[in-house]
Amino acid sequence: MTPPPLLEIEDLVVSFTTRRGVFEAVRGVSLHVEPGETLGIVGESGSGKSVTMQAVMGLIEAPGAIERGAMRWNGEPLSGTRHGPRAAVAGREIAMVFQDAMTSLNPLLTVGVQITEVLRRHKGLKAAAASARASELLRLVGITNPEGRLHYLPHQFSGGMRQRIMIAMALAAEPALLIADEPTTALDVTIQAQIVDLLAELRDRLHLSVVLVTHDMGLVAELCDRVAVMYAGRIVETAPVQELFAAPAHPYTAGLLRSMPRLDDSAGRLEAIEGSPPDPSDLPEGCAFRTRCPRAQEDCIHDPLTTDLGSGRGVACWHPLAPPVAHGQEARVHAGE
Amino acid sequence: MGPALAQARLHSFGSRLALSWSPAQRGWQAKRLTNFILQRLWHGVIVVLGVTTIVFFVTRVIGDPVQLMLPVEATLEQRALMRHQLGLDLPMLQQFVQFVRGVATFDFGDSLWQRRPAMDIVLQRLPMTALLTAVGIGAAILLSIPLGIIAALRPDGVVDRTTVVVSLAGLSIPQFWLGLLLIILFGVKLGWLPTSGARSPLHIVLPALTLALPSLARLIMVVRTAMMDELNRQYVKVARSKGLSGLRVVGTHALRNAAVPILTLSGWEVIGALAGNVVVVETIFAWPGLGLTVVQAIERQDLVLLQAVVFTVAILAVGINLALDIIHKAIDPRVGIR
Ligand SMILES: Nc1ncnc2c1ncn2[C@@H]1O[C@H](COP(=O)(O)OP(=O)(O)OP(=O)(O)O)[C@@H](O)[C@H]1O
Ligand SMILES: [Mg+2]
Question: Which residues are in the ABC transporter domain (chain A) (predicted)?
């Protein structure tokens, strides 16, 4: 028997109660992360990427609730309560780096305190040992003079430095899985590249599994082994990176790839996916993408099942682009628009 | 103590406050902190001078103490003599100069009513008021923090709904009316608690309760709002993602950030009690403190005593404010010097 995946999510449903009623932000997501693997999660804004990751970390709070689904860590169930797993795994085995480094640190506690509290909690280190380890961690993420900097407050650091500190903090408990939710979006382009390099380097050095949530297909190509594409609270396609880029099966994935700037595209033409992401409280019946889909047909009004395409690929579509995509088929997609 | 020494002492105090900074920054930060404290002190001096000046002129406009101190049938000569003895026949400016000289040495002269140094009376009454305020407002502060936090943790929960309703009720009842209600209930109907004077520890319960309830209502609302704001911030989410205990997330991360508005209002509640609410409460419950003294001084047109009381309260208010500023700066070093 193969060993269980590091993290496994099965049929996760997360809902939010708003003034206008209850809506599901995540509508039955299943995914898994293998040891040592880097999984990319892509999808438009509002597709439920962050909510899914927050559910794993046990951060879903009223007005949100986990309605259904199982989460397993090394085969053991994660979820204890309606609001997510207890802190035993989250924070110790799984750590998360958030999008906005500027607001992610407590403005009134020194970065030293914010790192050592993790070491005290999960590593049982006492004051001096914790401080020593904290400055080691700061050095690891490329902060010079770490001993002195432990006494600084967050506002004394730049955005890029704060994201480095966030990464140091996430690594403090020596987690097996690092969830990075758009870790670079809030940063300058040059700083983005540095943070990406740092993440890649640390991942290789510490043998981390990583879930990378991003809008940046380039980043996915660079860092990830496998990709899950999310649309309107569902995973519409999963595939190994090479195969996904070579031959997307879901029309939405194809659209995403076409909307990505390419160096080899002499025309420099970008095609955005037509229309805008649907309102999660008012989704079309059946396949949520069908109102924007060039391949939509009548049967798309029924919920698509996820079909296994073999070699770890899956797609939830009635009319997938048959891989590998030949030129003729690509032309058909264009013609359909 | 020479000014240089005073500055040096303040400086070392500043250094101790600045302990959370790195050694390299500490000297610089301590100097900034020293300047900060000196600047606030200077503001305080100006406030105290301003308040006492206003009191001096206002008390001289509102009435004539001689009329009250002498029997109605006193002759004009007797009145003139009295006026002369009290120095009230001097030109206003000269009276003011004398007054300021007195203020500088904490000597306001003898109370017109009791014929002994006004400051002695104030210092004798002050501990009772301090006790009442400490017990009343102290209880309000200590209760408001857990209640406000629980309300903020479960918005629309039982505690939240109850505290909001009770707070609104508490805020809309005038304090004298509240005092009378408590007297009727606990003093007259149930007969559990004494309602007048300060002869036993039990005597403080009703006046402290009357003083505390409106403050408690205001404080709970502020703690609740401040905590709700903080609990929704990103850094709280991050702290929870680190697997920290709920106590650590709420008590260290969120509460520390909410502490500034809570502290500010707490300070204002103490000042508000000293500068006004104790007058009502001490009068209702015949609590022998400064508030009662003020009422008696006004009834007897005892300008000197009134000035001494107002001056003392102004000093206390300024002192509390200064302490608040320093604590505020210790909690949040980002607070500007200007
Ligand atoms: N606390 C909340 N209360 C109400 N609705 C929420 C809450 N958090 C998320 N949502 C809703 O859930 C849906 C999914 O949000 P999510 O943050 O997961 O999107 P995302 O895929 O991460 O998007 P982005 O790329 O912009 O980060 C959105 O419609 C969002 O409005
Ligand atoms: Mg997101």
Answer: 7-257
Please tell me the least confidently modeled range out of B51-65, B115-129, B208-222.
B51-65
| Residue A209 tokens, joined | 């599994």
Query: What per-residue confidence (pLDDT) applies to A280?
Result: 78
**Residue length of chain A:** 337
Which tokens is B192 given? 């559990």
The answer to whether the CB of A47 is under 6 A from ligand 1 is: yes
Q: What is the best residue among A26, A29, A51 to mutate for testing ligand 1's pocket, by most ligand atoms within 8 Å of CB? A: A51
Alpha carbon A335 to chain centroid distance?
Answer: 33
Where do we find the tokens 């505290």?
A: B163
Contact yes or no for B235 and A59 at CB 8 A: no
Which of A60, A102, A108 would best serve as a mutation to test chain B binding (most B beta carbons within 10 A)? A108
pLDDT digits (tens, 9 = 90+) for B240-279: 999 998 899 999 999 999 999 999 999 999 999 998 888 9
pLDDT of residue B19: 47
For residues B135 and B207, give the distance between their C-alpha atoms in angstroms, rounded to a whole number.
10
Measured from the Cβ of residue B227, the count of other Cβ atoms closer than 10 Å reads 24
CA distance A210 to A267: 35
Residue A219 tokens read as 């980043």
Residues in B closer than 8 angstroms to A166, CB to CB, are 238
Outline where DSSP puts E strands in chain A.
Answer: 7-18, 21-33, 38-42, 64-73, 76-77, 79-81, 84-85, 94-97, 177-181, 209-213, 226-231, 234-240, 306-310, 313-316
pTM given for the model? 0.82
Cβ B329 vs Cβ B36: under 8 Å: yes
Question: What residue owns the CA closest to ligand 1's atom 11?
Answer: A25
Reported as a pLDDT band with limits 50, 70 and 90, residue B45 is confident
Supply angle C-alpha B171, B177, B180, rounded to 5: 135
Q: Parallel, antiparallel, or unpaired: how do β-strands A234-240 and A313-316 relate? A: antiparallel
CA A151 – CA B144 distance, rounded (Å):
32
pLDDT (0 to 100) of residue A52:
96
CATH H-level, domain B118-331: superfamily: MetI-like (1.10.3720.10)
Helices assigned H by DSSP within A76-186: 101-104, 111-123, 127-140, 146-149, 159-171
| pLDDT on residue A334 | 40
Q: How many Cβ atoms are within 10 Å of A282's Cβ, its own excluded?
A: 9
Spatial separation of the C-alpha atoms in residues B118 and B101, rounded to whole Å: 15
Residue at B61: amino acid letter:
V
Q: Which residues contact B84 (CB under 8 A, 6 or more apart)?
A: none
For residues A245-256, b (16+ Cβ closer than 10 Å) or e, as one string? Answer: bebbbbbbbbbb
CA of A163 to the centre of ligand 1 (A): 22
Considering the segment(s) A7-224 as one domain, its CATH architecture is: 3-Layer(aba) Sandwich (3.40)
Ranges for all domains in chain A classified under CATH 3.40.50.300: 7-224
Scan for tokens 């983005």, then name that residue.
A192
C-alpha distances (whole Å) from A297 to each of A302, A330, B179 are 10, 18, 76
Distance from CA of A232 to the nearest CA of B (A): 24
ipTM of the complex: 0.87
Of B20, B237, B334, the CB nearest to A59: B237
How remote is the CA of residue A48 from the centroid of ligand 1, in Å? 6
- Residue of the CA atom closest to atom 4 of ligand 1: A16
Task: Flag whether pLDDT at B17 surpasses 60.
Answer: no
